[in-house]
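tool_call: predict_structure(chain=1)
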Amino acid sequence: MSTTTRWVTTVAAAIAIATPMVAAQARKPRVVIVATGGTIAGAAESTTAAGYKSGAVAVDVLIAAVPQMKAFADVRGVQVASVGSQDMNDEIWLKLAAEVNRLLAQPDVDGVAITHGTDTMEETAYFLNLVVKSDKPVVLTGSMRPSTSLSADGPLNIYNAVGVASDSRARGRGVLVVANDDIHGARAITKRHTTDVQTFVSPEAGLIGVCLFDSRDFIRMPARAHTTATPFKVAVGQALPRVDIIYAHAGMSPDLIDAAVANGAKGLVIAGVGDGNMTTPALEAMGRAIKKGVVVVRSTRVGEGVVRRNIEVSDDKLGTVASMDLVPSKARVLLKMALTQTSDAKKIQEYFNTY
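tool_result:
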C-alpha cells in the first residue's frame, strides 16, 4: 500500500470516528414537557385579577411563550390533564406516572419537565419519586400567578425546569421541583404560603441546588432512596388503597378516626400536635383501628421536626408507625404505596426510615 493510500485510509477512518462524536456533541438534550394544568396554565380576566381559571392554557401555548429555552434543548409537549392541583387524584397520578415512565424509557428523551399546580405539587413530586423507574431527570414546576398575570412567574419557572431537566448533573437526584430559581428535592419540599411567589421551602434538608438563568449549581444529593431504588410500581387502572389524614387539636374527638375506618380507610395518618400526639380518646380510637387491620402513622401538624418512635407515645405497644420527617401529606403518599406491598406495621416503618 502506497503512502498516499495509507494517508487517505487513515483520514477516512478518523472522519468516520469523529462524525458521530461531533453530532453527539452538537445535539441538544431532548426534553418533554408533560402538562397537568394548574395556575401556570391559568387565565384571568385581567393582568391584575386575583381570581383565575386553572388549566385553561394548553401545553403548546406554554412552550411557545418561552422560545428562549429552545436555544439549549429540543422541547415538545404532552397534555396529560388540565386540572387545578386541588383536584389531583389517584387516577391522574397513575396516568402521569405511566406517561413519565414511558417517555423516560425512550432513547430519544433525555429528561421530563412537568407543569403542575402548586397546591398539591409536593405530593405528586413525592409520589413520582417513589414510582418513577429511571435515573433521567424528572422536574416539576408551577407558578403562583396565572399566565395572564402582570409579572407572571410561570415562564421563567418553565425555562428553569427545562434547563434542569436538560442538565446531566440532575441525573440520579430523584424527582426535583424547580420554582423561583430554587431546586428542591421531592421528599423535602413543602408549600408554606398561600399566595407568595416564594412559597416553596425545603426546611429540614435544604435545597438540591439553585438556578440563575443558564447557570445552575447543584449543592447536594438526596439522602433517602428514591426512583429506581424503591420497590413501588404502579399501573393505569390500579386501585390504590384509601388513606385518610386526620388533624389533631385540643379536645380532639375520636369520632373522625372511627368514621374513617367505617368508610373503608386502609390506612390513617394522624397530623398530631407536637411530637405526633393526640388526646387519650383519640389514642384509644387509634388502637381500635389497628385491631381492625388499619395501619396508623403518627405525623405532626408542626411544620418542621422529626416524629420518632417511642418518645411520648409507645409505638411498639400500640403498633403504630412513626412518620420521621415526612409531613402528613407525604406520609399519606408513602403509606398508600407501602400498603400495596404489605400491611405489616414493622415493615412499613422500615419504608418510612428508608424512603
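agent: The longest strand covers residues 74-83. Proceeding to next step.
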